[in-house]
Amino acid sequence: MKRKISLTINGKSYTDEVEPRLLLIHYLREVAGLTGPHIGCETSICGACTVMLDGRTVKSCTMFAVQADGRQILTIEGLAADGKLDPVQEAFWNEHGLQCGFCTPGMILSSKQLLEDNPNPTDQEIRHGLEGNLCRCTGYQHIVNAVRAAAKAGA
Question: Which residues contact 66 (CB under 8 A, 6 or more apart)?
Answer without folding.
Answer: 3, 5, 18, 20, 22
